Amino acid sequence: MLGTSRKLTKEKKELAQQIYKIEELWKTNPDATLEELEKPGVDDEPQSVALKYEDAYQYQNVFAPLIKLEADYDKMMKESQSKDNSHRFDDASRLTPTEIVPP
Length: 103
What we know:
Layout: H1 2-28, H2 34-37, H3 56-82, E1 84-89, E2 95-100
Antiparallel strand pairs: 1-2
Region (Disordered): 77-103
């Protein structure tokens, strides 16, 4: 009985992780499927940061991917905030949605 309880807990954790990963993937690709999570490189984590580095090459290999990830995220956030979704009412009762995207 205790073994099945642990197994269910483990399966729930795995399911929650899978849900989180697919939601993160949907932020960049709304048409993504669960099969795409299985592709190599989709959920690769960047290398962890160390307290000391042997040389500048090792330092660059750790921090360059982190800086690129941050730049991509900032760009995505800026683009999503620059979209102005507004609504206007034409015939006093009909709502006409309009989307204004700056150049």
